[in-house]
Amino acid sequence: MSEVIDRPLRDDEKPAASRLRIVDCDVHPSLHSHDDLNEFLPKRWRQHLKEYGSHLRTPYLFTTPYPRSSPLIARRDAWPPTGGPPGSDLAFMQKQHLDPLDVEFGILQVLDLFIFSQQNLEFGAAIQRAINDWQLAFWSHRDPRLKASILVGQDGVDLALTEIERCAKTGEYIQINVSPRANEPLGRRRYWPIYERAQALDLPLGIHVGGYGGHAPTGGGWPSYYVEEHQSNAHTIAAQLASLVIEGVPERFPKLKIVFIEGGFGWIPSAVWRMDQHFERFRSEVPHLKRKPSEYVREHFWFTTQPIDEPDEARHLRALIEWVGIDRLLFSSDYPHWDFDDPRFAFKTPLTEAERKKIFSTNARAVYKF
Q1: What does the pLDDT look like over 186-239, one tens digit per residue?
Q2: Could you count the other beta carbons within 10 Å of the beta carbon of residue 202?
Q3: Using one digit for the tens of pLDDT, what is the confidence trace for 350-360?
Q4: How far apart are CA 67 and CA 313, in angstroms?
Q5: Where are the beta strands (DSSP E) in 12-109?
Q6: CA angle 130, 302, 182 (to 5 degrees)
């Protein structure tokens, strides 16, 4: 997490990298209200939402688990002067984020509990379809810098495939998003038809932290504090990385690109070291894996940078980046959330101009084909 600079920078404060146009792989738009979706929902599901509301896989029925001191997990200066929640006003987002930070492309990551966590899968698919149309109508068509993702609920595989085909025909979406907290780990074969289609369409699979699978987010049960809840994001992503690799997804779909979003990257070395060690000792259990897990990770997975772990010594962050791989990291700001990373100050360790260009632009351009 870096500090938000709320004043213009002096010339002597501006690093060379501030002149680099960036690709921000994690920008959060918000609904002003659920009524925004009315024009995109069939009458049946509008009535359903009005009369029955959501039936979610979460104990948080009327609120989120986030602290009241930081409502909607947002920066305090990100609330639009026109009203509505942070991220709901395009003009304000342009003025506060896209224009001053010279964002060339911003990838939209829509977060709302009711998108991915519906118990009624058909209703959930209707919500996802409406959200996908809303992204184009309210954001991408109004600012071509903003790129939409196809949101689908992987537990309704047939419904997800229908939505992927519908959206892919438009040519306006740049990835397929699934939740890391579904009913089962993401490596399970029941989800493979989605991966097969993503590979065929050459669309990266985006996996953003969040959502609720109905299970506790930690192996130890439900956390008491937001600090614990937020900490568990890295554990969840690590578990899903292991599931995808060990179940054989990259072996079965060798051209599939997978991007983990907002899970950070500090945990990757130890997770991969352990997978490699276990693979050497138990490889007879997983004969479908032809190579070490680390080789699959380095060829098929990318990781967005936020939240960046900040060790006391900058050289430790430098060593971490080198181990994960300069080519595997994609810059993300997480705008407008409270732990937003300002691209001018996000990396508290030296990077060459060539390395900055890769992380802040060219890696994402290669993955998403901008």
Answers
A1: 999 999 999 999 999 999 999 998 877 778 888 888 888 888 888 888 888 999
A2: 11
A3: 899 999 999 99
A4: 30
A5: 22-27, 103-108
A6: 45
Q: Which long-range contacts (CB under 8 A, 24 or more apart) does 75-82 make?
A: 75/4, 75/336, 75/337, 75/338, 75/340, 77/4, 77/6, 78/335, 78/336
What is the distance between the alpha carbons of residues 343 and 333, in angstroms, rounded to a whole number? Answer: 7
Residue 67: pLDDT over 90: no
Per-residue pLDDT tens over the stretch 137-162: 999 999 999 999 999 999 999 999 99
Question: For residues 78 and 97, is the Cβ–Cβ distance under 8 A?
Answer: no
The half-sphere exposure of 360 on its side-chain side, counting CA atoms within 13 A, is: 25
Cα separation, 154 vs 180, in Å, equals 10
Structure tokens at 101: 């930070």
AA identity, residue 245: V
158: number of Cβ within 10 Å: 10
The CA R_g of the chain, rounded to the nearest whole Å, is 20
128 close to 153: Cβ distance less than 8 angstroms: yes
Give Cβ neighbours of residue 130 (< 8 Å, ≥ 6 apart). 37, 40, 41, 45
Rounded distance, CA 118 to CA 315, Å? 44
d(CA 67, CA 338): 11
Phi, psi dihedrals of residue 149, rounded to the nearest 5°? -115, 150
Residue type, 17: A
